[in-house]
């Protein structure tokens, strides 16, 4: 089986999230923490770390990512329903040879959108296209924190080990904008750079056993640079949620965690 992209976890998470704590209350309530080490897709150079704490269906999400296209919005999602893995960074998954691992080519690994990691408002797959509510990478970095409710199927994907964190949007030609001659597999009026996955990490039980503290209120967000709301095309990211849905059945539920 293909291994999910990963780098040493504990040191990165400790540096990115210095306020991580474990409280007696969260332990009593059965909260569980998950971590994703974001590795580059499409040779984007994007790296980072995501931390998620689930207490029931309440998720506190923290993402730190660098190497992104500065000044541009970057869609980010929990993807579910497939293998819980990431495509290769070396373009070996570029089946059609166009120089990109597209959403269509990557979906067999990480599946469809389960949650849209927006800065405000709705977080369902319906908001997969809400570019005005995804963070903008001012200076090429994103620092995101938000607390909200996830659906039962997303919670189940975390327990099954099939939840994946994906950040979209790359600048392959170094022009400083989403452009180029290769058009998106989701919407042929858009450049592929606008919708291609830039970074990916499988969400696994956090080895530190830690949980983010002090998350934003449900319905609010805290991110770097949400001023730039340039749209990259109506319907494009909604289509991303549909690609690969049901392509691979959920694995059997793992034994209950202690």
TrEMBL record:
Keywords: Membrane, Signal, Transmembrane, Transmembrane helix. The chain crosses the membrane at residues 230-250. The keyword Signal applies. Residues 1-27 form the signal peptide. This is CHRD domain-containing protein.
């Amino acid at each position: 089986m293909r291994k999910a992209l990963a780098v040493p976890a504990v040191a990165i998470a400790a540096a990115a999230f210095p306020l991580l704590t474990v409280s007696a209350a969260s332990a009593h309530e059965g909260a569980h923490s998950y971590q994703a080490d974001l590795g580059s897709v499409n040779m984007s150079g994007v790296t980072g770390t995501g931390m998620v704490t689930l207490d029931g269906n309440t998720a506190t999400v923290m993402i730190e990512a660098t190497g992104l296209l500065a000044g541009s919005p970057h869609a980010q999602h929990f993807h579910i329903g497939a293998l819980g893995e990431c495509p290769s960074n070396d373009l070996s998954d570029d089946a059609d040879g166009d120089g990109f691992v597209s959403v269509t080519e990557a979906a067999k690994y990480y599946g469809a959108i389960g949650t849209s990691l927006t800065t405000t408002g709705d977080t369902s797959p319906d908001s997969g296209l809400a570019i005005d509510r995804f963070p903008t990478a001012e200076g090429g970095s994103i620092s995101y924190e938000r607390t909200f409710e996830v659906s039962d199927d997303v919670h189940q994907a975390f327990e099954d080990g099939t939840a994946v964190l994906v950040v979209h949007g790359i600048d392959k030609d170094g022009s400083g904008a989403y452009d180029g001659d290769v058009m998106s597999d989701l919407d042929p009026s858009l450049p592929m750079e606008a919708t291609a996955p830039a970074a990916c990490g499988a969400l696994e039980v956090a080895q530190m056993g830690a949980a983010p503290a002090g998350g934003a209120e449900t319905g609010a967000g805290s991110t770097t640079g949400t001023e730039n709301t340039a749209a990259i095309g109506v319907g494009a990211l909604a289509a991303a949620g549909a690609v690969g849905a049901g392509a691979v059945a959920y694995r059997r539920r793992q034994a209950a965690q202690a």
